[in-house]
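Re-run with default settings, no changes from the original entry. Doing this only to confirm the output is reproducible before filing.
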Amino acid sequence: MDEENGQSRWRRRTELPLFLASLLYLFCYAVRVLAEGLSEGWRDVLLAVTYALWSLFLIDYLVRWRLSGQGLSYVRRHVMDAIVVLLPLLRPLRVVRIYETVRHRHAHARLTLYARVIAYASMSAVLLGFAGALTVYSAEHDAPGATITTFGDSVWWTCSTLTTVGYGDITPVTPMGRTVAVAMMAGGMALLGAVTGSFSSWVIQTFTLDEDREPPGP
């Protein structure tokens, strides 16, 4: 019980600062990828910042692992935490945890269940799409035979992939780009399913409540 309390206190204290650090990480990575005229000195500075921030994420994970007292079972129970350490660009997806941390400071949730699901899924789609577009552009734009040669191409490809449309007009050709594509397709199906399912449930519940409120006929 003490270990769980210690882990909860650590998470509440560090979740928001680390979320801001993850946004800074994403910003530094985006500048390195998109700013073609950036000097090597500034590139080295941004690279050093990203490595320092990644070190913070790793230290946070190790501290929570140590406080949990669960050993290797902690890794199996917190797969998402391990993934965002290995892929720091996805760490902003932990915005869900940020909301839960803030919510615990108040007596009740500010958003309904359906609104939370839709808001989480929408923010996750934007963050996942931006991170994926950056990664694919970085891997593809100068590859032989690449069809994704500008960041605009990468954004277009990301939108069609996340929405599972897949026009096929531009496609990744590198192993990294195709790996990201698989993750984007899986993430797109999951996020779209969450949004459409929540919206459908909300509509059904609304009509059900309206029917229950209607006075009985003569």
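Residues 121 and 191 are 5 Å apart (CA to CA). The first helix runs from residue 2 to 34.
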